[in-house]
Design a protein that fits this description.
The chain is built from ten helices and 19 strands. It is of the alpha/beta class and 399 residues long. α8 packs antiparallel against α9 (328-358). The longest helix has 31 residues, at 328-358. The radius of gyration is 21 Å and the shape is globular. Bound molecules: flavin-adenine dinucleotide. Flavin-adenine dinucleotide (FAD) is lined by residues 17-23, 40-43, 49-53, 113, 134-135, 163-165, 169, 189, 272, 294-296, 307-308, 311.
Length: 399
């Protein structure tokens, strides 16, 4: 419930840029703590685009702390993954093993990206969601942050949260940084109702060929999401949705016919074509009255499936710090201290995963990158890293 008068005198009104998972989740978390929030999103409507996303125990634990009912609904709509398979492009089995979740208190859950968005959106009153509001500029003073939008409107807030994704304009203006560099991989994603014996319920299956993988996830309720990830020396930009679909079908031309059929059935207008970026390692996420969450704070490659999960970790930490401290500077300092080192470690580990996809003999302890010194925690073995990642302990909430 949101009270009329904020219990946090230094935070009467918070502006959030972006209505992706980060923006929606931080709005829900702050409203629960009695803070007035407004989300400004550049899209004109919410469309059912995007594919599937795997929520891992660390992300689910964070989301449950933000709002347990969201997780409850996702568990009803999504699919708890219990088996992981790798097959060749033609469908021959290579690996078949159970999903190892016995050491964690939450499952691995595959959901449609659109379900996640809709469930979270339904938690917010429509009047705080300002669509067709593309932020083009902000100015901050000691007392407030003034926002200017492409539609000519303006707003003034006490705190600005940049939840505006991988090419964040808030990050760009806050720290004078360019967008992250291209990472050498292209991805195409879609979701479709589909049944086939190669894609049983509760399974993740990767069909792989040199330099290319097609990852299939059971998303529950008969939906299967697919993601084609392939190395590409340059960024590919399709001229229209049908061209993107034709490109995927061309890349899968000699693959198992069921995979081509799945892509063929997918509505081209819902397919998301994205280049994978190099991680961007930011030493700080806040300055004055402005801070970052989600992809804006820690752009990373998708190879560990942690973009959305670490976003929910950020949101829980930021909302907790904002109510624990009695001034904004201390709250944002505590937020950075609690999050940045862990996010860097995950970002470096995604780079290791990308390198390992090119060289399966590479081991974490030998991994080096030109982006900086790899943290020791990013160099440990698979099981130790998984336990560190998935057993993440949340900051305690103040009473
Ligand atoms: C359309 C879409 C589909 C996706 N599909 C998948 C998927 O299928 N599987 C998966 O694992 N991940 C997917 N992702 C990525 C995943 O959601 C993110 O990696 C992660 O969840 C981080 O979320 P975020 O909210 O930080 O960033 P994002 O999800 O990128 O959200 C950022 C939001 O900010 C808005 N925005 C950007 N700039 C401005 C501006 N100047 N003014 C106002 N608004 C702005 C964007 O329109 C967007 O809604 C998708 C993202 C998007 C936007």
């Amino acid at each position: 419930m949101q009270s009329e008068h904020s219990p946090h005198p230094y935070l009467k009104k918070v502006g959030i840029i972006g209505a992706g998972p980060a923006g929606l989740a931080i709005a829900i978390a702050l409203r629960k703590k009695g803070i007035e929030v407004h989300i400004y999103e550049r899209a004109k409507t919410f469309r059912p685009i995007g594919a599937g996303v795997t929520l891992s125990p660390n992300g689910i634990r964070s989301l449950a702390a933000i709002d347990a009912d969201i997780v409850q609904q996702l568990k009803q709509q999504g699919s708890q993954l219990n088996r992981f398979r790798i097959r060749t492009a033609r469908g021959w089995p290579i690996l078949n093993q159970p999903v190892k979740d016995e050491d964690y208190d939450q499952p691995f859950l595959a959901v449609r990206w659109f379900s996640l968005q809709e469930i979270m959106r339904a938690k917010l009153p429509p009047e705080i969601l300002h669509l067709h509001h593309q932020l083009i500029h902000f100015d901050q003073t000691q007392q407030s942050v003034n926002l200017s939008f492409a539609n000519g409107e303006t707003a003034t807030v006490d705190l600005l949260i940049g939840a505006d994704g991988i090419r964040s304009i808030v990050r760009k203006q806050l720290f004078g940084l360019e967008d992250p560099a291209y990472g050498g991989w292209m991805t195409w994603r879609g979701v479709q109702k589909y049944q086939h014996r190669l894609l049983p319920p509760h399974h993740t299956t990767i069909f792989a060929k040199r330099g290319k993988s097609l990852i299939l996830l059971d998303n529950g309720q008969g939906y299967v999401s697919w993601a084609l990830e392939m190395t590409s020396p340059t960024v590919h930009q399709s001229q229209h949705p049908e061209a993107a679909k034709a490109r995927v079908l061309q890349e899968l031309s000699n693959w198992h016919p069921a995979l081509q059929e799945l892509v063929n059935l997918t509505d081209a207008n819902t397919i998301v074509e994205r280049p994978v970026c190099e991680p961007m390692i930011l030493p700080q996420w806040s300055n004055g009255r402005v801070t970052l969450v989600g992809d804006a704070a820690h752009p990373m490659a998708p190879f560990l499936g942690q973009g959305t999960n670490t976003t929910f970790e950020d949101v829980w930490a930021l909302s907790t710090c904002l109510v624990q401290q009695d001034n904004l500077a201390a709250a944002l300092q505590q937020y950075g201290n609690s999050r940045i080192e862990r996010a860097h470690t995950i970002q470096y580990r995604t780079m290791y995963s990308a390198a390992q996809m090119r060289n399966p003999f590479l081991r974490p302890r030998w991994f080096k990158t030109s982006l900086g010194k790899v943290p020791d925690q990013a160099k440990v073995g698979e099981k130790a890293f998984s336990d560190w990642l998935y057993q993440y302990e949340l900051t305690a909430e103040s009473t």
